[in-house]
Amino acid sequence: MSGRISSWGARHLQALVSSAGHLVRSPLATILTLIVMALALALPLGLLTLVQNTRTATGDFSGAIGMSAFLKQDVTEAKARQLTSAVRGRSDVSAAQLITADQALAEFRKDSGFGVALDALQDNPLPHVIAVTPASAATPAGVESLQRYLSAWPEVENVQLDSDWVTRFNAILGVLRRVLVVAATLLGIGVVAIVGNTIRLEILNRRAEIEVTKLVGGTNAFVRRPFLYTGMWYGLMAGLTAWLIVAGALRALAGPAASLASAYGSRFVLAIPSLGELGLLLLVGISLGWFGSWIATAVHLHRIEP
Amino acid sequence: MINFEQVAKRYPNGREALSGVNLRVAPGEMVFLTGRSGAGKSTVLKLIALLERPTRGQVTVNGENTGQLPARRIPAFRRRVGVVFQDHRLLTDRPVFDNVALPLIVADSSLKEIDRRVRAALDQVGLLGKERLLPLELSVGEQQRVGIARAIVGRPPVLIADEPTGNLDPQLATEMLNLFRRLNEVGVTIVVATHDLHLVRESGLREVQLDGGQISNEPGAAAPLPHIEARR
């Protein structure tokens, strides 16, 4: 029994090695097929890496989601200080800072260049503002309810969320992720078709061998085995090549990305796909290769009879 | 061992290759099939090897009714019928050893077993020591013998050969015949289709003559009813 099992294993090993041998013996055809497959795999992988990196990069800013509570014009500075400490005392708030009307005016005068025009005003048109930073654990819903709570205060004119752009940006990322899924699906089908067609040609090339094998009692499973391994080899090598392509592209992007990040005061570093992702990519490549050759053999092998 | 009962074979193109053939080959018997080209010799062999199924009638080989054998059992059936072709159908990109080993490889034999039996088969056909050569490095007669080694390596109880001496000179043809007779002596049932009447007469073995898809030399063999067993 163990002899049978080991010979079964030896047979698989033999199919594995001989299918690799077939690929090596026609290097040009193999390489051309590989390049097409690798590009088809590299595109979604590159997109995935882009989305993930963007998320990491913007993760730095999510802490900056805050809100500004604009107080009514008639609220005194003393009352504003009192309100600020009341806000600061809440558990869903990590920081609250009062920007008085005078401070705001001074800052505006300095930064805007409207100094002379402002001098013409008799009163300070700006209100006091409380800059509120929600607790870091706050959910978007929590932030929203805090906003509603502060709006309800009689001294508060209006509460503005600073995070609108983050929301929009996250929505864009959401679209990108969906694009990624669609592209990955379509390109995956492409990979299956490429492997299927390559295996089909291989089957036609080895027609005589298949006929003789069936003639001496080879089962369909036996005849099929080397082709399935060929498909898996293609998938494995295409996955590796795709990873190299993406890693190379990221290397080329690393410099510009670093200067972009530092321009935003971020210490973000472009990450290449992790080993786990490489493993997943190879698994996907092998599965697609196997599936493509499975279809080709299912369609074409039974047509070849001695 | 091999039994044809009222067998007819019509190919998809409409040609009726066999009609009403009754043929019985006993276990351990060796039979020659003769007749002109197109008389149906190849069709008889194809029906025995289950490369074709009968249109009407019954073909029984090794106790299996080939007309009703499900597809998944065909590989196991073919392992019990060795086939030798005139054009020997060797894989020219594989060495002799791999060609002969193929029936054992598909049957999942162990490597040790394969090594032993391939050598034994090559020894039987006198080609021991040529395992590593490619088929095209051998003479025509040697290639034919590699084909025979491949057919017998799995020790099938039935061996069929289509014009095995067709490309050989008389001396090689006689050697080939002797090789078949030696295999027959150890119990293999053999059916050989041939044009070589001289060889058949010389052998003194049973000859089944086909003419126009019917057996012409064995009384009763082609008669529809009553069934009479083919005479030695």
Explain what this protein looks like in three dimensions.
- Chain A is α+β, with helices and mostly antiparallel strands and 306 residues long.
- Chain A has 10 helices and 4 strands.
- Helix content of chain A is 73%, strand content 8%.
- Chain A has a 4-stranded antiparallel beta sheet with strand order 2-3-1-4.
- In chain A, 26% of the residues are buried.
- In chain B, strands 6-7-8-3-9-10 form a 6-stranded mixed beta sheet. A 4-stranded antiparallel beta sheet of chain B has the order 2-1-4-5, covered by helices on one side.
- The C terminus of chain B is likely disordered.
- The chains are: A alpha+beta (306), B alpha/beta (232).
- The interface between A and B is medium-sized, with 23 and 22 residues.
Mean pLDDT of chain A: 83
Low-pLDDT ranges of chain B: 221-232
Mean pLDDT of chain B: 87
Q: Helical proportion of chain B?
A: 25-40%
Largest sheet of chain B: 6 strands, mixed
Q: Which fold does the CATH topology of the largest domain in chain B refer to?
A: Rossmann fold
Strand content of chain A: 5-15%
- CATH structural architecture of the largest domain in chain B: 3-Layer(aba) Sandwich
Give me some keywords for this one.
heterodimer; A: alpha+beta; Alpha-Beta Plaits; 2 domains; 10 helices; B: alpha/beta; Rossmann fold; six-stranded mixed beta sheet; four-stranded antiparallel beta sheet; 7 helices; disordered C terminus
Describe, in short, the structure shown.
Chain A has 306 residues and is of the alpha+beta class.
What are the SSEs and their pairings?
The complex is a heterodimer of chains A (306) and B (232).
Chain A: H1 2-25, H2 27-62, E1 67-71, H3 77-88, E2 93-99, H4 101-112, H5 115-119, E3 129-134, H6 140-151, E4 156-161, H7 164-205, H8 207-215, H9 220-263, H10 275-300
Antiparallel strand pairs in A: 1-3, 1-4, 2-3
Chain B: E1 2-10, E2 16-25, E3 30-34, H1 41-48, E4 56-61, E5 64-65, H2 74-78, E6 81-84, H3 96-106, H4 111-124, H5 140-152, E7 158-162, H6 170-185, E8 189-193, H7 197-203, E9 206-211, E10 214-215
Parallel strand pairs in B: 3-8, 3-9, 6-7, 7-8
Antiparallel strand pairs in B: 1-2, 1-4, 4-5, 9-10
Helix pairs in contact in B: 3-4, 3-5, 4-5
